[in-house]
From TrEMBL:
Residues 1-80 form the CFEM domain. Belongs to the RBT5 family. GO terms for molecular function: metal ion binding. One of its GO terms (cellular component) is side of membrane. This is CFEM domain-containing protein. It comes from Diplogelasinospora grovesii. Pfam families: CFEM (PF05730). It comes from the Eukaryota. It is found in: Membrane; Secreted. PROSITE patterns: CFEM.
Amino acid sequence: PTIPACSVTSLMPTCGIPCITAAAIKIGCTASMDFACQCKSASAMQSAVMPCVMSACGRANAPVVGSVANAICTACLPAA
């Protein structure tokens, strides 16, 4: 998968990455790094990813995953 040249992606806690990949597939996005698809379906993505993130990253790090995901949607996508 190609990762956009976007520095924000490096801030994602590693515990959250498998969750994001699984959630992306669950909501119909084809690639784990298909941010355009994930950000377009942000609310579906969030509800699909949070249970996994809570168990994988714990309560302390779960909000970090959400914050970074929001930052990726803001910073890494060309404005439509």
